[in-house]
Structure formats: C-alpha cells, structure tokens
Design a protein that fits this description.
Elements lengths: L10 H9 L5 E5 L5 H5 L7 E4 L4 H9 L12 E4 L10 H14 L6 E3 L1 H8 L4 E5 L8 E4 L11
Parallel strand pairs: 1-5, 2-5, 3-4
Antiparallel strand pairs: 1-6, 3-6
Length: 153
C-alpha cells in the first residue's frame, strides 16, 4: 500500500499508466471482452487486471492518477450497443458521470462500433480487465499531459 494511491491500482497498472505517453490509450474491459487475446497484441503485450472491480470503480481509480487528453478532443471512448449506437447503458452512464466529475465539466464520450472497438483495442498501450459483469462495460482512455506547474516536486 502507498499513501495517496488507491488500493485498486496495483504495481503493474501503476507502471503502465506511468510509462504511457501523451496520446497513448488504454482499454478498460468488462468480463466478457476477449481481454487476454487482445492484450497480447497491445504495446505491453500482456493482460493487466483489476479483478472483481466494476468498470466505473476501476475507471475512477485510474483517473485519480491519469490525466485525460480532454482539452483538445473527447478522450474517453465507449463500445456502442449493437444496432443502437446512441443507447447509453447504465454502466456507461456511470462512467460518464465519473469523467464529468473528474474533468469538472461535461466531457462527452465518443462511441466506437463493437467490432471496430476490438480492432482499435489491439492498438492500445494495454488492456485492463475488470470484473464488470454488465454488457458494454468497455472503454478507451487517452492519456493527456500534466502542466509543469501541476507536477509535485
């Protein structure tokens, strides 16, 4: 355990979040996502896990240390519901509320068609599998920057 670091963030996840650069993105996946198979094709090539943790709680923990790239563009993607791209399931609404709170303003997520999501995910820096049991609990988070004046020294 570390001071100021949420318990959900294990060493492997902290290392990945720290080594990612501006514009790199990660996948937060639900329990039904082919996480291991996709993770083998990502930059780090192995699966990271936040076992038994729902996606919203995992994303809340990640965003406690991870800057989003929101000033320029939407930086949180969501897997679209098949045949209903504008539908926002409960798990996605929960994540949207977390993103808005963390950013201090509305920061709409962008949708990615389900099959396209799998292809985009292969280009991610890493995949973090959660224990999210609800369908469509899969997200993309793009890393932003931390201004020099905000770096703790």
């Amino acid at each position: 355990m570390l001071k100021g670091i949420r318990a959900e963030l294990n060493g492997a996840i902290l290392e990945a979040l720290s080594t990612m650069g501006h514009g790199d993105f990660l996948v937060v996946a639900d329990a039904n996502f082919p996480s291991d198979a996709i993770a083998r094709q990502t930059r780090i090539g192995k699966l990271l896990t936040m076992d038994n943790i729902p996606a919203p709680r995992a994303i809340d923990a990640i965003l406690s240390v991870f800057p989003l790239d929101t000033p320029v563009q939407p930086s949180v993607g969501r897997m679209e519901v098949m045949g209903k791209p504008d539908e926002i399931p409960g798990v996605q609404a929960e994540v949207q509320a977390i993103v808005n709170r963390v950013e201090g303003r509305p920061s709409p997520m962008y949708g990615v068609e389900r099959m396209a999501f799998y292809e985009v995910a292969k280009k991610a820096y890493c995949v973090i599998a959660t224990g999210e049991l609800r369908f469509y609990g899969c997200f993309l988070l793009t890393k932003g920057v931390i201004p020099a004046e905000d770096v703790v020294r």
